[in-house]
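One chain is below:
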Amino acid sequence: MQEPGVGASEIMNGIRHVRPGGGFEPKLTLFDKTQVNGDNEDEIFTFLKSACEFTDDTFASGLNYSPMRVGDIHWNFEKFLIDKTGKPYSRYHPTLITTDTISADINALLAA
């Protein structure tokens, strides 16, 4: 949980007044923080991780949840692409994802 703040309203205040600040109002729905790994992970991440091949089998130092499992999400920039029926299509490692890689997959899903 890198983003400071507890709950969507507190995080939104950080966006408005600190980073980027200046009264910035994002045009998106901001949800509360949720766990992506461990005993308290949100069921959506259990579903996504079970439906897509994992991208890495190593663990970074400093992780503090339990239990650690192969297939866990290792960094907040890891992405999942979901098709229009709600089925997970692909999972992208944060160091390997590029605009070209994900654009081709998005276009393939849009054309399907």
